[in-house]
Structures are given as C-alpha cells and as structure tokens.
Amino acid sequence: MITSGPLIWHRFETLADASEALAEAVAVRLRAVIATRGSALLAVPGGTTPARFLTALGAHDLAWDKVTLLPTDERFVSADDPASNERMIRAAFAPLGEGRARFLSFHRSAGDLDAAAGAVSAELARLPALDILVSGMGADGHVASLFPGEPAAAMTGRGLHAVAAHPAGLPARISLSPARLAGAAWASLLVSGAEKAQVLTTAQALPGAYPVGLLLGRPQGLDVYWAKA
Ligand SMILES: O=C(O)[C@H](O)[C@@H](O)[C@H](O)[C@H](O)COP(=O)(O)O
C-alpha cells in the first residue's frame, strides 16, 4: 500500500502573505530544476485566488526563458473571454507578457471539447512530468476541473494527460488529468478561508471523498499554503 507523503501546512494571516511566500518557494525550486535539467514545467491554477501569487512570482529574477507555464485547467471559451484562465494568468504574470516565459495554451481551434482535450493531452504526452504544481481548490474539494462526482475525476489512466470536464452549472472545461496532477515532482495548494481548511481536514480523514484527495495521497507529499482570510 502506498502511504501518503508529508502534508506540510504553511499558515498565513493574509492571502498576500501566503502568495508572497509561495512565490518565493516556487522561485527557489524553479532555479534548482533549471540548474539540474535546463528547463522547468510549472502548472498554475485559475480562479480568483492565484493572481497575487502569479504577480509575485513573475517579479522574481530567474531564467524565465527556460520555464514553460501551463494552466491546471481551462474553461472551454475563447482565449480573450473574461472566464479564460489563460487571460487571467497572462494579465498577472509579467514574464509571459514580456515574451520571456513560454505558455502552453489549452485553447484549441477544435470546435469539439473532446477533440480539444485530446489535442492538449497529445501535446502534454510529449512532455516530462510537471516539475512544480500550484493548484487551487474549490470549497467542494475540487482541484483543477476535477469535481466531485464528475467522470473526469475518475479518469486515472496514466496515459491520460488532459481530460474534458462538464461540471454542473459551469462552462465546460479542459483539465489536467488526475495522473498529471498527482505526478508532479513538487505540489502545493494555495487556498484561503476556514471553509477550505475544513474541507482539507475532512478530505485527509476520508481519502477518496474529494478530488483533492488525489493530491493529499501523494507519496511525494503536498505543501498547503493557507491564508486565514
Ligand atoms: O478554473 C478554475 O476555476 C480553477 O482552476 C479552479 O480549480 C480553482 O482553483 C478553484 O475553483 C478555486 O477557485 P477560487 O480560487 O476562485 O476559489
């Protein structure tokens, strides 16, 4: 039986403090990975939490031309749609706007969600495992676009790199697969508020109850950057 690795909590009073600390930790790791491998693959979340983190990370001085960034998931909309995670990430993360870091977009011309997800999965299949994952989490315990009860959350095949998701009442999405998320060399969660802290505590006690459990159960462990408010 594979035992879970260490769950390391980093607790902060504010999201600004948690974001700055996580940005520092990711920058240190990026430098180390680049020094070892010559390049680095970093996945970052969408949603409302990570903008400050992305801006803080982008302000660090490192070899951004050696870094490829990708979203943990993307809404099936156009790249300039206000709901696009890529739009938010590009606005917050200066090294992309200045053409230094590379971005692997999940936006595809394929009109069909499954075809687009298949194209993203095929592109990701040619890449190594994620060096660094920064994920968010919803109050329902979803990570990326792997929602409770959503078939995508159960698509654990190791050959799958990206999956199509149809969360109820939300735009369709393309998500990194459970294997791609859980397989990151180093993984972190950036979350805030008491409700999400409680979901994490419950998920730790009930493996399999929430999609975030796929990160909590990692043998490599998980670092949680939690802000009180
Ligand atoms: O596309 C998305 O919305 C995100 O990738 C998603 O997985 C997000 O991380 C959680 O929903 C938390 O969102 P908030 O940060 O807005 O609470």
TrEMBL record:
EC number(s) per entry: 3.1.1.31
Gene3D superfamilies attached to this UniProt entry: 3.40.50.1360
Coiled-coil features, chain-numbered ranges: none
Pathway participation: Carbohydrate degradation; pentose phosphate pathway; D-ribulose 5-phosphate from D-glucose 6-phosphate (oxidative stage): step 2/3
InterPro entries, alphabetized: 6-phosphogluconolactonase_DevB, 6PGL, Glc/Gal-6P_isomerase, NagB/RpiA_transferase-like
GO biological process, one term: carbohydrate metabolic process
Pfam families: Glucosamine_iso
Function per UniProt: Hydrolysis of 6-phosphogluconolactone to 6-phosphogluconate.
Family statement drawn from the similarity comment of this UniProt entry: Belongs to the glucosamine/galactosamine-6-phosphate isomerase family. 6-phosphogluconolactonase subfamily.
Protein name: 6-phosphogluconolactonase
Gene source species: Bosea psychrotolerans
